[in-house]
Every structure is written in C-alpha cells, then in structure tokens.
C-alpha cells in the first residue's frame, strides 16, 4: 500500500503562517511493496498545479498569494505499481507587508536605568465590545520588544514561550499569528491582556549582564482582525486606547534570575484606577523588518515527576527530577494568603544534599511565589532554568506538588540509535537531552548560568549530530538568517549569534575566529546534507565566501612562503583546543590555535568548494580546492617531519589533518598509527578539545585503527564519554572532569571564571559516529537520495539498530551478530537507493523496500576500513 508519510508547508505539517510568496511544499512516501517508485505527483493550490518531477519538494509558482488568507494544499501521487495516495494540508499567509493598523505602545511613565537587571514587566489591557454577529474567523497578529504572553478573558492565547523569539533584532523581528476564533465566540465584551517582560531585547543578557540593548523599555505591537458571518469585519490595534500598569502579578522576570509572582493580584477583577493609565505611543530605536514567524516555537514537551524528595535541616525540601534538563517547574499549591514560597534550581548537589549554585555565577535561578488563599497552580512564563534539582522553602511537602516542564523548540524527532551496550544507549539519551536543553529558539551553549548565548562553535561541531536526531530545517534556517545579518563587512562572524551586545574579542570584534566562525559554513552544509535544500546553500554562499576570504586574510598577515597559509594571529583572539583535558588552563588551550586555525582554514575552504560545486560554480570550486590544498601542504610542511609525525604532538593536532584528509599516502598511515599510540599511552582517554572531539573516532576508525576507536568510545575512566555516564550524568558535560570520582567538582582558577556546565552539547558530537559508523547509516547524496549502510562491526557489540527520517521517508536499519553470522536488515524508502557495504568488500545496491542480508564473519579479526 502506498501512503503519504508527511506533507509540509515551509517544513511545518500544521499551523504554518507565512509571508513567503513562494512557500516550499515537501512530502515523503512509504510503501510495503518491493522496488516501489514514484511515477508522478501533483500538488494543487487553488488553480495552480505543480509537478515536482522525481523530487519530493517544490516551491509554489502560481498566482500571487493574498495576505490574511487560508489555502488548501492537495497532493496526489501515483507509483509505478499503479497505486495512488492522497494527502491534504492547510496554510495561511500572514501580513505580507500590509501596513499595521496598530501602533507600538509602552508605559510612557517608566524610566528604567538600573544596570545588570531586567525591567519590571508591563501589563497592557484593552476591554472592547465586539460587533453583533457570529465570529467566523479571528486572528491576532502581534510582536514585542521584549517577550510577551497574551490572554483573552483570562484564557491563554498560546502555549508557546518567549515569543516573539530571539533574532538579530536590529535586522528582523518576528510577529506571531494566533487563531483566536474560539476565544471570541459569543460576542460581547472581551478583555485582551498582554504581559511583556524584558527578555533578550530589554532585559539583562550575557555574562556581562548588559540590558536595554535593543530598546530602552518594553513595547507591544498587536492587531486583532475579526471577520463576521455577515461579511463585515472589525480591527482592534494597539493604540492610546489601551491601558498599562507595572503593578501586575508578575513583579520581576529575568532570564537568569528567575521570576517573582504575587498571586494575590487579580487583574481580571481590577477596575480603571490608580494602577492603570493610558498607554503611550512608542518610537523604537531600532527599525527591523517585521516578518511572519519563521522559526521553531519554544513549547513545553515532556512532563517530569520527581524521583525523590528529601528534607534538609533548614526545612528546605529538595526534589530530584531524575533528569538534567532546561525548562520550568509547575507547582500545585494548597496555599495561604500571603504565604511566600521560594524555589531554587541547580544541576548538582553539595555533599550535605543542598543545592550547589556556585556554578550559576551571577544567575539567581530563583522563583518567589506569593500565594493567594486555596488551591493554585503556578509555572513561570518569562524565564527558564537548567536544572535537575529543585529546592522549595516556605511550605510543607504535603501541601505542594512539583513537576518539571521540559522547554525547547518544536523539532520533529528524525533519528534513533540503540545497541547492545546499555552505556552507549545512555550516552545517546544524554546527547539528545543535551540538544533539547540547548535548542531554545537559538542554539545556546548552556541553559543554567548567566550565559545561554548563541555560541557558534558549539553548533558548528554539533550540527551533523543534531541533524540525525531532529529535523533542524526551520530552527537552523532561522538562526542562519541571523548569522548572515550579523556578519561584519570584513567577513568575520560574531562568536555568539545573535550577538546582542556581546563582542569577543572586544578590541577586534570583526576578526574571523576559527571553528567558531566556521559555523556559517559547517552548519548550512550539515543541514543541506541532511535535507537536500539547495536554497539554503544559495542564500548562505555569499556569507561563506566573505568568511573564508576573511580567514585567508588573517592567516596571510604574517609569514612568508608556506607560512602564509599557517593561521597564527595572536592566540588571545582564538579559542584553540578549547577545554582540552590534557592542559589545565585556558591560555594553553588558546596557544594551540595555529594548529586548529590552520586546519579550520583547510576545512572551510574544502567545504566551500563542495558547496560551489553543488551550485554549479565549478571554476570557484577549483579555486577553493586549490586554497585547501595549499593549506594542507603548509600544515604538513610546517608542523610535521614529512613522514606523518608531528613535531609537537597532541591528539587534536593529529585528528584534524587525518579526518580532513590532509595527510596523503604513507604519511596518513603513519599519522594514524601515531595517533593510536598517543591514545593508548593516554589509557584510551580523550585528549581533544572542541575542534578535535567530534572527529577523533573517525580519524582512528577510518584509518585502520578500529580497535583503538572502540576502546576509546567504551572507556569509562576520566576523561571519556562513558565516564560521565558512570558518574550518573543525564546530559553531556562542558568539561570532561566536571566531577571527580567522589562526585565533587575539581574546577579551580583556570582562567574561565568557574566555567562548568553539566548540560553542554558540544562533546555530544560523538553521536555522528554512532549513526555513521556504529549503526552505519551515512548520506551519499544530499537528503539521502543515495545513502550507504556500512556498519563497523566490532566484538564489543552484538547488535545495533536505528532509523533516520529523511525527506524521502524513513530509513530503518539494524545489524546483529550471533554465532559468527552477521544479519543485516535495512528499509530503503521510495525515491532512494542504498549502497550496502559489508566486511571483506562485499557490496550491493538495494532498491526501495525491505532487505535482509546475512554474512559469515570472523569476530577475532578486526575490520579495517578503507584507508582512502
């Protein structure tokens, strides 16, 4: 039977509202028939009919779409076996440039001058009478400078958090569209209320705690458009008829410090009086393009229940949620009028069982809740925390229930991995939870301390793993728009995007910084490989070109001859071998930048050549390949003895040129052998920082050192991935030595200001190896139109299985070894081909359908992979 697995508009299966004049339609298929193929497909919107050919995506190409309009999308597919499948979807257009019948409003009396804190939340209100007649359609279009939450007659308009989202505010500001038809049913008077907190635009942000970066105070822009059954309409926009107060129940809201909430204040019962005054028209100091929401909204997902609760001598209750995550608590309280409850959050505990908040730095991560009488439910709306443990004071355990709500951006799960080793399965879970915790509208570095910034280096190395586990298309597309907007004229990329007031290095903020700035090349390439969207490459190609040109400029400032291709600008402006565990101080990690930066220049140049070739720019591809070749030659000539041995040895210095194919012939073989020796001498423990960690297992396994790769992967002594698992980690740590064997943190004065996060996804980039080598699923052609199934079988594992959802459908694959018999199973989706490569060079091309192949193997012989 032929079925449509997914029909999406702009990568959303439902609820899409777009300002695009050419929205993208995508679909995939499934069939239980062998060698089934798509013969034809048509997508219809009104009178326009599109034919995607043998692809499974097409952009709308019909008559101009109208603003504020709902459209139906009809898909009709036939396969080569004569079967048909149908699917329908809906989408809406947004404003599409229509002028707002609304004004920016604020509290004109508010003067906010305090430093390193967030402003008081503003509450806006409009009581309006609807026209007579049945409401058949009502949409609320809104945005804010700050973060907002809307209610109509006390009912939440949406369950999303932190709208309008975090963007490069000076360039683009998203507006959201909400269907509020049901909330306006019955006509009569309606009370529209919006709370606007400081968020990223006005509130304190980054570890420098700057505030008022994009606006001096909060502002709201909203337009309610109502259509009635008789054909009439009504528009209610923000203007001077709205009221505002600073005396709402939410008394304080800060992304780092938390929230203070006084439940005794009930605005729905308030009348116009001293606390309310007319809103003022605001003239924002920035003038961004207002665009329909194009990102992945942050919503609550998993609900976590405490696995234990203990009482300290201070009568403080400590709840263990059993999982480190990013989100908020939900409290169900039997309270007394005026009773004050304090809730604090942390990732780890002190030896006495109390919360360790030392590593939060200046972030207070505290909720203060003042009760009204009786049963009440409270969960903050304008902050979030990274935590596993919650302490509660001011109430007894019998009068409160604590739950955790995991918050992260909406991203469909696309991948799964498991195997016969339970510790690797725990590692996979830690990788996924680390990603969920840091994919919070932007790709952050950590969710707990006074940072939570869009560090580019983390997502640069993690993007391939993220794209296996999730459909990152909307999330990354949004963030990469900000990367492009914030690129300096010199080509440099800020180390955090959106930068939002943060610059590093402060003296030269427009410099190119290896591996961090590389995100503008590596992230869109990873997404293109996973989803096959050529539009993303076309849009980012000029950004990549400017960046690589900047890298080449900085590398060539010093040196003559081949040293013109050795990137050795002052180490203080680089991160180098960041958090490498074999060195104790930050300055020593940075001192390795000539190796990491030079390898980076090779990698970005080579990747850019691949991008150029995909775009049909062959001449430019040759130029970038030539640059990559010259950089590789310089690295080998300057840093090695010419026979595969580095003059100064450390793991990352071998890993990068091996993974990037900078070594050739016998030199490559010797370098891999020497890396394996270093790894063995180090007890098969990790010695790499951010740039080397994602690639070290590939550098070993792909160069004849499979056993060393598996021994490193399965090592559980510090530093290693499974040491964290052994110590009870439920996410990925920022530092390999985050806890010692006694469960205490040994981090001292190493120049990083107590930098230790227990929820930091960068080192979880090993997930790429789990999918591509342990399981064996690997893309050959973008979007998995052609893919390889080539597991590396090792005696330490008996089986592995998993799936990857591609634009063409779901690849399911598994292998199992029993009594020297290898059994391989793979499901090949319609529209794709699979190249099965097994031990001993056995290969098969598999057509769409289900396949099983058996092979006798000798587990005593370690498989050596192709060394090319």
Oligomer type: single chain
- CATH architecture call of the domain at 105-295: Sandwich
**What is the count of helical runs?**
15
Low-pLDDT windows of residues? 861-868
Task: Determine the N-to-C terminus distance.
Answer: 42 Å
Bin the helical content. Answer: 10-25%
**What is the CATH homology-level superfamily of the domain at 105-295?**
Galactose-binding domain-like
- The best one-word shape is globular
Domain Alpha-L-rhamnosidase C-terminal: 776-844
Protein name: alpha-L-rhamnosidase
Domain Bacterial alpha-L-rhamnosidase N-terminal: 134-269
Domain Alpha-L-rhamnosidase concanavalin-like: 311-398
Detailed description of the structure:
This protein is an alpha+beta fold and 868 residues long. Among the domains are: 2-93, Immunoglobulin-like, CATH 2.60.40; 105-295, Galactose-binding domain-like (Jelly Rolls, Sandwich); 299-409, Sandwich (Jelly Rolls); 778-856, Maltose phosphorylase, domain 3 (Sandwich). 22% of the residues lie in helices and 30% in strands. The protein is built from 15 helices and 44 strands. It is globular.
